[in-house]
Design brief:
Length: 415
């Protein structure tokens, strides 16, 4: 997703309760995001380390992402327990009349403005405030200060290999107890990158799965060598799934509207437009007409199950494509064709109830039950569970403790 967002940039100029015990003082929580790892990828037999962690711990048949099912909004949701409409990172690309510049646009410094990210306190800040030292390895958004604060340790996004990321995390865990992190976030982008460029059923996606699983094996081996595996909780997740985009399944809005009368804020699985002054009625009338494979709404009329459309950053008119289709402008389509040498064969961002959007969820360690498969659940429930594992009081959010109660070992039964 990091490379995908960079490409588009060129174009677009909870609560604690006494029901469960707090963790032992030397327990560590490592939360790992494997961007774009669809839940059923685990069945391909290419990730033995991940499969063993799932068998020995807790696995969901598929975690439902928040809408829109894209990278930045969901990484913030996982670490705040709030929907994008409530935490404010409503898309990978967005505009805000109160903040100069275009988030995700030509100037990468725009996204570093903390004002984009201040809608909800992330878990690493809550942990730090309650005495739990935190460290970040590339988790999206963790490099931007929240209320002037950052994790105690971290690296700015770069080009480290998955193995090098793991080695850096293990070096953090080698620190003396007083400076060692108890909460670590780690991010792997390779599966998502391959999914966009080659499609979810490609050999390139399979190779990326193998690569990430090897890095996970390196992490587990490193923890075992340090005698820390038994005291480490691992939570491995994805932000969304991926669907194949067959050739020709694209909708170009230039075919039915004069794009000089509007601003396109985002495009892909969906498109957002803000009419220019004086063209509001005309643009709305054209965009809201029924069309094959595309449904458009005024922002206040987006279907309730998507929990989207109330935040000021959501564009005035929002259109969602049918799964497997993309909605673009002609310049965007031309650029994507030139940028992806192999074509653009996979995408996400669709309705979270679509099975192809289902994300990986695996939890393994002393805090979790053994050999448990659970039904699909909404990812807003991850945050209160993580707070419980850390033994900190989380911020109020949109999720509940139902997931924590289902998958965590009750007080008095910890291994």
């Amino acid at each position: 997703m990091v490379r995908f967002l960079a490409a588009l940039a060129v174009l677009f100029a909870v609560l604690a309760t006494p029901a469960m015990a707090k963790p032992a003082g030397d327990e560590t929580l490592i939360v790992i995001s494997i961007d774009g790892f669809r839940a059923d990828y685990l069945e391909r037999g290419l990730s033995p380390t991940l499969a063993k962690l799932a068998r020995d711990g807790v696995r969901s048949v598929g975690m439902r992402p928040a809408f829109p099912s894209v990278t930045l909004p969901n990484h913030v949701t996982l670490m705040t327990g709030k929907t994008p409409d409530h935490h404010g990172v409503i898309d990978n690309l967005m505009m805000d009349p109160a903040i100069p510049g275009w988030f995700g646009g030509l100037d990468p410094k725009v996204a570093e403005d903390p004002r984009w990210w201040q809608g909800a306190k992330p878990l690493w800040i809550t942990a730090e405030e309650q005495g739990v030292r935190s460290a970040d390895m590339y988790w999206p958004g963790a490099q931007v200060p929240f209320a002037g604060k950052l994790p105690s340790m971290g690296r700015a996004p770069g080009d480290l290999s998955a193995d090098a990321e793991v080695d850096a995390v293990l070096q953090w865990l080698d620190r003396p107890p007083g400076s060692r992190p108890r909460f670590v976030t780690l991010y792997f982008p390779a599966v998502d990158d391959a999914g966009h460029a080659f499609g979810p059923d490609s050999k390139e996606v399979n190779a990326a799965i193998v690569q990430v699983d090897a890095a996970l094996a390196r992490l587990v081996a490193g923890l075992e060598q340090r005698g820390r595996r038994a005291s480490t909780n691992l939570v491995l997740m994805a932000d969304h799934g991926m669907v194949e985009i067959p050739a020709g399944q694209q909708i170009l809005i230039d075919d039915f509207i004069d794009t000089s009368k509007l601003v396109v804020t985002t495009a892909g699985a969906y498109i957002g437009v803000n009419p220019l002054p004086g063209h509001e009625a005309e643009v709305e009338a054209v965009m809201l007409k029924p069309r094959d494979h595309l449904t458009c709404w005024r922002k206040g009329q987006i279907p309730a199950h998507l929990a989207y459309g109330k935040h000021p950053r959501v564009p005035a008119i929002f259109c969602l494509a049918e799964s497997g289709w993309v909605v673009l402008t002609k310049p965007i389509a031309a650029y994507m064709t030139s940028h992806y040498a192999s074509g653009f064969h996979g995408n996400h961002g669709y309705d979270p109830v679509d099975p192809t959007m289902a994300a990986l969820f695996v939890a393994n360690g002393p805090a979790f039950r053994h050999g448990l498969m659970i039904p699909a659940f909404d990812n807003i429930n991850v945050y209160p569970m993580l707070a419980r594992v850390l033994g900190v009081k989380g911020e109020p959010g949109d999720g509940t403790l139902a997931l924590a109660r289902k998958i965590m070992v009750p007080a008095g039964q910890r291994r």
